[in-house]
Structure formats: structure tokens, C-alpha cells
Design a protein that fits this description.
elongated, Fumarase C, Chain A, domain 2, 9 strands, L-Aspartase-like, two-stranded parallel sheet, mainly alpha, Aromatic_Lyase, 2 domains
Length: about 525
């Protein structure tokens, strides 16, 4: 999905492509007539409660541990403004634009469900900010992932009020009031319950989960490509990837990874060169032989995470909520545990896939295990160091990924005078997963760069058509074997190729779509 497409936002669930399209590619959003009608119905109920002498949480009371105070009607507009201003307490580095846009879209979807009680005009303004490319500046720290992503969403709500800092479509930072004025938009004066409805959701962590799943789809295919290239480079065997062997352990992810490896290695001249009695090795090392088992387990983990994300994309997370029968009820649906757990789970998978990739790279550089390749793939070992320090870089990243794999979701810290005495830390899990996926991208890029060099050094033996296509794509950006040269720019070039899906596209130009 690209920026010239339109995502319709209504009471029903959003699709993964919808989120990615709006967050990354600037797709437009439109509220459906059904959603506008649903919001009108819920708003009528909220206004009835606001006029009632009976206290209603979030409508006529304070918040959190201050919920025992009944707020006079004359103070309720101030109540909503004060809520947003006080909760916009984030600190630290700026959160990426794509994450903030995903969070905005997901909050808009919950508003459109008709279960929050906001006015249609407030939802329309949030949609208008997305369409205008106005992105509130959100800071990394502040969310505990319970009562939703309160601080990050408060920075978004602040922009709707014409306050705080935003970035425009060109990335320029400035006051929200000025950006809204340039776009022809008027700030909203929040009415009863609207401040709370804008900030009480798990939209930030869910947005990061959806974006991570899109990235993992590319990265896990890239991991299979990297493994296939390393198998060729190390004169390994592809017999262990046979479908009948893999079927003895019927995990779907494992089957998919093995199928990718078979497709990548089909018709390999390098593989054919040692399918005879001259090969004395009984079996390959685990980092080669077990590649489908590890990458497959990561795929199955991603599939579970996608199932959780799919359910969340159909959820209406707010407290209190307006039910279809008109009741307004408090609830605990804002707790981020379901999302936090799978974000942590994916960080474990990313660390393990990267760890195996680093081990394969190390084998290609070691003359005792590389089966005839020069030390460190150097042009003149001793004078040249080849890819020695590229593996150091991998090792440093893998070590960091192991630390990032420690779960955030078990680390609850009570808040709000013990009213919020158990929190999910799901936002923190999402932040560290984003760093983990960046690290995995870099580790795979170094393996692919190293394996391409090793495959070139095997000439006149020829690689498989698919792995050869990947090597050819790399050679458009990075030179082949030779004397030592500045290696960091070459690594960054391949990092960009992996992240953009260029490596996968090169492979698929031969194999067709990989699993």
C-alpha cells in the first residue's frame, strides 16, 4: 500500500497492510459513515452521564488514584485539558515518525468503534492530522503499558489541542498551533471524557508490533537466503533440507524455511562439485544443518504474534467503555500483557536467528573450518585482514541482542499511589524489539556480504541461480574480493539492501515467492 491509497477506518478491524500503509507510506485515512453514526450514539450516552448527578469515572471524576473526587460541571473542560497536559510527560529521544503515525491510526480506529464516547469532530481532526502529515513529537520514555500508552498518546492528544511540538510532512519541527494553522485545521476544545478516550489505549505497543511483523517477514526470508549462501560457501550439504526429513517434525515454520533453502540451492554447481565419494564429512555443523529448525521456530513465533496482533486490531481499548446497550463500564482491557508478551517473544527469536548467522559467518573466516577458503577471506592473509572485524561487529551486535532478549513484560513497577499496582511494560518491550530487529538486519547483512565473497572465491565453481542472483545484486553496490578497503560503507550498503527487501527480491527473481 502506498501514499496514494486510502484506508477506511470504521468499527471493524484494520488490516496489517492498512497500518503499514499509513505509518510508512503516507496512505490517506477516511472515517466511514458507520463509524460516524456509532460515535454519535456513544456520545449521546456520555453527555447523558455528564448531566447526571451520579459520578461516572472519566466523565465527572478525577483519574487513577484521584477517581474518588467528583468534578463540578464548570471544571470538566479544564479536567480534560489538565489530564492531557499532565500526562504528556514523556522524556528522552524522539520516537520514530512511523511509530507515532501507527499509534495515531490505531487510536483513531478505537475512536471509530463507537465505544469511547468521543465526538465525531475530534476523530475527524485526528484523521486530518494523519492526512496532513503532521506528526506529534513523542518521547521514548513515559509509558508503563497499562492504562495504555498514556504518555505517548498524551503527546498526540496535546497536538489536537494545538499545543506541544510536532513535525510536518517534511520533517520540520515546530509548535503544533502553527502547523495546524498552515494545514487549515482548528484545534479541538476537549469535552467530557474525550481526553481520557484519546490516551487510554495500547496503540503504541501494538503499532510497533505490526511494524515489527512486517520487518520480520523480510528478515526471516533474508535469514534463509543467508543460510543457503553460507551452505554453498562452506561446501555443506543440502540433503538435510529434504522435505521428507523435515516432515518428521511437522512445524510449519520449519517446513517453510527448509523449502526456501531447497529453492535457493537448486541447481548449484558448488553443491554438485562435492556430491561424490571425495567428500568425507558425515554431517555439517549445527549452524548449517539446523538452520530451518531455528528460522522455522522464529517463523512460528511470528505467526503467534500475528494472531495476537490481529485480535488487538479488532479491539476497542478504553476505560470506561460505552457498550452497545448504552451501559458505560470500567474495565481492564487497557492492560498491555497480550502485546507485551509477544513483543518479548519476538526479541528472543531475533537474538537466536542472529546468533546462528554469526556462527556461520565465523566458520567462513576460520581456515580450520572453511574447507579451503583463505584465512578471513583475505586477499593476502597477514597483510590483509579480510572480514575479520566484520565478524567482530556481528559478535558485538549479537551480544547486545542477547541483552535485549531479556523480557520487559515481567518487570512491573506500581504507580498512581498503588491504584495501578501491576503494569505490562509493553511499550518498553516494543522499543527494545525495534532495536533488536535493527541488529538482526545488520548481522544478516554481514553474513550475506561475507558469504557472497566466499562464493566468489570458490570460482570456477558456480553458485545456484538464486544465490548467484543475490551475489550479482550485491555486486551492483559492493565490489568483489580484493585487497582490504574501507569496510563500513560496504556493510551499510548491504544493510540497506536487506532492510529494503532488495536481497529477497533478487532471490525471488529466480525462485518465485519465498515462503
Amino acid at each position: 500500500m502506498r501514499g496514494n491509497e486510502v484506508v477506511k477506518v470504521g468499527p471493524g478491524p484494520l488490516g496489517f497492510d492498512d497500518v503499514v500503509g499509513v505509518a510508512r507510506h503516507g496512505a490517506a485515512v477516511r472515517l466511514t459513515e458507520e463509524s460516524l453514526a456509532a460515535m454519535e450514539r456513544a456520545r449521546t450516552r456520555v453527555e447523558d452521564l455528564a448531566a447526571s448527578p451520579v459520578p461516572a469515572y472519566g466523565v465527572s471524576t478525577g483519574f487513577g488514584a484521584l477517581a474518588t473526587r467528583h468534578i463540578d460541571p464548570a471544571l470538566r473542560a479544564r479536567l480534560q485539558r489538565s489530564l492531557v497536559r499532565s500526562h504528556a510527560a514523556g522524556s528522552g529521544p524522539e520516537v520514530e515518525t512511523e511509530v507515532v503515525r501507527a499509534m495515531m491510526l490505531l487510536r483513531l480506529r478505537t475512536l471509530a468503534s463507537g465505544h469511547t464516547g468521543v465526538r465525531p469532530a475530534t476523530a475527524r481532526l485526528l484523521a486530518a492530522l494523519l492526512d496532513a502529515g503532521i506528526t506529534p513529537v513523542v518521547r521514548e520514555y513515559g509509558s508503563l503499558g497499562c492504562s495504555g500508552d498514556l504518555a505517548p498518546l498524551s503527546h498526540v492528544a496535546l497536538a489536537l489541542m494545538g499545543e506541544g511540538e510536532v513535525r510536518d510532512r517534511d520533517g520540520r519541527a515546530g509548535p503544533a498551533a502553527e502547523a495546524l494553522a498552515r494545514a487549515g485545521l482548528a484545534p479541538v476544545e476537549l469535552a467530557a471524557k474525550e481526553g481520557l478516550a484519546l490516551i487510554n489505549g495500547t496503540d503504541g505497543m501494538l503499532g510497533m508490533l505490526v511494524l515489527a511483523l512486517a520487518d520480520l517477514d523480510v528478515l526471516l526470508k533474508s535469514a534463509d537466503i543467508a543460510a543457503a549462501m553460507s551452505v554453498e560457501a562452506l561446501l555443506g550439504t543440502d540433503r538435510v533440507f529434504a522435505a521428507d526429513l523435515q516432515a518428521l517434525r511437522p512445524h510449519p515454520g520449519q517446513a517453510a524455511a527448509a523449502a526456501n533453502l531447497r529453492a535457493m540451492l537448486r541447481d548449484s554447481g558448488i553443491m554438485a562439485s562435492h556430491r561424490d565419494d571425495s567428500c568425507t564429512r558425515v554431517q555439517d555443523a549445527y549452524s548449517l544443518r539446523c538452520a530451518p529448525q531455528v528460522a522455522g521456530a522464529a517463523r512460528d513465533t511470528a505467526a503467534h504474534a500475528a494472531a495476537v496482533a490481529g485480535r488487538e486490531l479488532a479491539a476497542a481499548v478504553d476505560n470506561p467503555v460505552v457498550l452497545d446497550d448504552g451501559r458505560v463500564e470500567s474495565n481492564g482491557n487497557f492492560h498491555g500483557a497480550p502485546v507485551g508478551y509477544v513483543l518479548d517473544f519476538l526479541a528472543i527469536a531475533a537474538a537466536d536467528v542472529a546468533s546462528m548467522a554469526e556462527r556461520r559467518t565465523d566458520r567462513m573466516l576460520d581456515v580450520a573450518r572453511s574447507h579451503g577458503l583463505p584465512a578471513f577471506l583475505a586477499d593476502d592473509p597477514g597483510v590483509d585482514s579480510g572480514h575479520m572485524i566484520a565478524q567482530y561487529t556481528q559478535a558485538a551486535i549479537v551480544s547486545e541482542l542477547k541483552r535485549l532478549a531479556a523480557p520487559a513484560s515481567v518487570d512491573s513497577i506500581p504507580s498512581s499511589a498503588m491504584q495501578e499496582d501491576h503494569v505490562s511494560m509493553g511499550w518498553s518491550a516494543g522499543r527494545k524489539l525495534r532495536r533488536a530487529l535493527d541488529g538482526l538486519t545488520r548481522v544478516l547483512a554481514i553474513e550475506i556480504l561475507t558469504a557472497a565473497r566466499a562464493i566468489d572465491l570458490r570460482r570456477p565453481l558456480t553458485p545456484a541461480p538464486a544465490t548467484g542472483a543475490v551475489v550479482a545484486a550485491l555486486r551492483q553496490e559492493v565490489p568483489g574480493p580484493g585487497a582490504d578497503r574501507h569496510l563500513a560503507p560496504e556493510i551499510e550498503s548491504v544493510v540497506r539492501m536487506v532492510a529494503a527487501g532488495t536481497v529477497v527480491a533478487a532471490a525471488e527473481s529466480v525462485t518465485g515467492p519465498l515462503a
